[in-house]
Every structure is written in C-alpha cells, then in structure tokens.
C-alpha cells in the first residue's frame, strides 16, 4: 500500500478504492473524505462499471473523526463538516455503475453508513457493524435519514438507541448486509462478485437501480404499473435492436 489515504486500483472496468489509514481505524476525517470523493468521481468519469470499497488493516472503518476545533464550534463549521460526509455518501449512492462494499473487522457509525450506501455489502463472518452514536450523546440523524428507507423502524431504533454492534449474520437478517462469507475467502468472494457484475449490461443495470429507487417511494400498485410499462418499453427496444 502507498502512503495515500485512499489507495486506488483499476482493473479493466472495475475500480477498487481502499481506505488506507489502518493506524487510525480508517476513520473518516477531512483528508480521507476528500481523497475518497476524488477517487469515486474519477472512477465515474473513466466509465468504471463497478466500484469496490475496501479497507486496509484490521477494521473497515471505525467512524467519523471530526476536526479539532478551539472553543465552541460554529454552525457553519459543523454544517461544512457534515456536508463533506454527505457529499461522499451521495457520490457512492449516485455512482452510475454498481457499487460493492467489502466489510471486515468493525464498521461503526459513519463507516457502517458508508458501507451501507453501496448496492451490495459483502461482509466477513467475523465482521461487526453498528451505529454507536446515541450512547455517546449524539443523535445520528444523517444515518437515520438514509437507513429509515432500508430498515424497519423497529430494527433501526433498536440499533440506534442501544448502539449495539451486531455480528455479520444478524446484520444480514436486518438488511444491512447482502451476503456473509468466511473471513479467509472474503477477498476471493468479493473479486468473484465484481467479475459477475462488470459484464452486466450497463443500461439494464441503470434501469433497475433507478426503478427500485423510484418504486420505493410509490404505492405498491402504482409501482407495479410503472414496472410493467418500463419492462414493455425495454423489451420492445431490445426487439427492435435485434431485428435491425
């Protein structure tokens, strides 16, 4: 690994971003966030079809590390800090291809939130995930604003209020994790998933990602009707392309 806060590895249409501050638990400070924002933006600009988020060291990410502030922080300083965090979150959410986070060790607070922004979350069986802010006297409203759409209210409140750190298997049952694999094969499994995803039709991928986001905001029957309309249009377009 280089001395960069985020190591970037490009392999064909797959870009892997490795959080590279293991001595600090890969905590998300301004330097790390700016480096990650730049890496994700460049991956999108170069047309990468798959973005993989990984981490060096024993933990994926132990959360956010705020700047040192003398005296009482002003609203402007705090707003700028959280805008930086959310800017990275949105870059990952809006990535034009598919995103995969590969979680080992602990993923806590903002680190768990970052991992959960990806389309797929692959976790080692020994991984631990949690949102530990409330017991520290912080209401994680940014985290809650996103995960309220991913988890049921009861499960989300349980995680937030207790701050408990759950094992990978429970995280999968709750919907925080897509799949759980053995620690020893985490790298191999993640690489295999990236290989499967990178050959998918980008147009089809974009359609289903966009549709799922829209459908989540609609009543079920409206979502079904929209789904039928989009599927019909897609099949007609494919048929016309085939017969040309």
Describe this structure as you would to a colleague:
The protein has 244 residues and is an alpha/beta fold. The chain folds into 2 domains: 6-198, 2-enoyl-CoA Hydratase, Chain A, domain 1, CATH 3.90.226; 202-243. 48% of the residues lie in helices and 16% in strands. It contains 9 helices and 9 strands. A 6-stranded mixed β-sheet has the order 1-2-3-4-6-9, sandwiched between helices. The chain has a 3-stranded mixed β-sheet with strand order 5-7-8. Strand 3 (50-55), helix 2 (75-93) and strand 4 form a beta-alpha-beta unit. It is globular and about 70 Å long. The model has no long low-confidence stretch (mean pLDDT 92).
Distance between the termini: 50 Å
Number of helices: 9
Radius of gyration, Cα only, in angstroms? 19 Å
Largest sheet: 6 strands, mixed
Please give the domain count.
2
What is the H/E string? EEHEHEEHEEHHEHEHHH
Looking at the overall shape, the CATH architecture of the largest domain is: Alpha-Beta Complex
Could you say which overall geometry the principal axes of the C-alpha atoms support? Answer: globular
Q: List the strand order in the largest sheet.
A: 1-2-3-4-6-9
Helix content: 40-55%
Report the average pLDDT across residues.
92
CATH topology of the largest domain: 2-enoyl-CoA Hydratase, Chain A, domain 1
Please give the number of β-strands.
9
CATH class of the largest domain: Alpha Beta
The name of the CATH superfamily of the largest domain reads: 2-enoyl-CoA Hydratase, Chain A, domain 1
Pick out the low-confidence regions: none
Kindly name the structural category.
Answer: alpha/beta
How much β-strand is present in the residues?
15-25%
């Amino acid at each position: 690994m280089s001395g960069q806060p985020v190591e970037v590895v490009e392999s064909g249409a797959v870009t892997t971003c490795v959080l590279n501050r293991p001595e600090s638990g890969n905590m998300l400070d301004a330097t790390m966030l700016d480096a990650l924002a730049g890496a994700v933006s460049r991956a999108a600009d170069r047309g990468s079809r798959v973005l993989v988020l990984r981490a060096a060291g024993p933990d994926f990410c132990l959360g956010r590390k705020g700047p040192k502030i003398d005296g009482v922080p002003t609203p402007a300083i705090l707003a700028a800090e959280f805008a930086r965090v959310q800017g990275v979150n949105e870059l990952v959410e809006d990535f034009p291809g598919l995103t995969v986070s590969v979680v080992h060790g602990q993923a806590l607070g903002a680190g768990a939130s970052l991992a959960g922004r990806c389309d797929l979350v692959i976790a080692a069986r020994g991984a631990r995930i949690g949102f530990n802010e409330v017991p520290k006297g912080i209401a994680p409203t940014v985290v809650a604003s996103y995960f309220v759409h991913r988890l049921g209210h009861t499960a989300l409140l349980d995680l937030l209020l207790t701050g408990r750190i759950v094992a990978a298997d429970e995280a999968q049952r709750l919907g925080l994790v897509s799949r759980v694999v053995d620690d020893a094969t985490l790298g191999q499994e993640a690489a295999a998933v990236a290989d499967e995803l990178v050959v998918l039709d980008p147009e089809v991928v974009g359609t289903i990602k966009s549709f799922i986001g829209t459908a989540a905001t609609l009543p079920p029957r409206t979502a079904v009707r929209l789904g039928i309309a989009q599927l019909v249009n897609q099949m007609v377009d494919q048929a016309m392309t085939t017969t040309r």
